[in-house]
Amino acid sequence: GEDVEQSLFLSVREGDSSVINCTYTDSSSTYLYWYKQEPGAGLQLLTYIFSNMDMKQDQRLTVLLNKKDKHLSLRIADTQTGDSAIYFCAERSGANNLFFGTGTRLTVIP
Amino acid sequence: SAVISQKPSRDICQRGTSLTIQCQVDSQVTMMFWYRQQPGQSLTLIATANQGSEATYESGFVIDKFPISRPNLTFSTLTVSNMSPEDSSIYLCSVEQSETGAFFGQGTRLTVV
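ok -> structure tokens follow
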């Protein structure tokens, strides 16, 4: 399968911005996604970006895509304690295959 | 977005036994997917379940260990057979309604003792 890499941990103070990074290897990716997993829960789709876009904003979330460097990031503005979770990036390669990153555990310090 | 319900949400099972996990979707979908998330790790696709045909298994997963049923367009089951402690994981059911997203059930947390 494709390689999708993320750093494992990120800690930020409440009110600061969080930036979660992801790199992938498949240059033919069509869509890239960010999912949130809270403790004991399944995955919640947060946002996605089509590969011909370089930025997408949705309220506190900003997704940046650098297709040349195969780098995806998720910025959470004004991070709150409720944002503490594991964040997975995923890329779509081919018609039906989703490849997930290792997940980044975000801890928000009050 | 689809609403996906999984049962059970968690279970503790004895080694050597089998557990069947159910996944119900609130709309008709062609393909349903089963993932495994081992402790502290990412998601690994086990198999893709199409209604009316055999499930397609990913490398490292076999039908004897993870039999899947897909009797209609809103329901699927995954059985974890002859369990060992290494099968302790979260098992997630998913549907993809378009390129713009895959939706997941809340998962089944399985502990094998």
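The longest strand of chain A covers residues 85-93.
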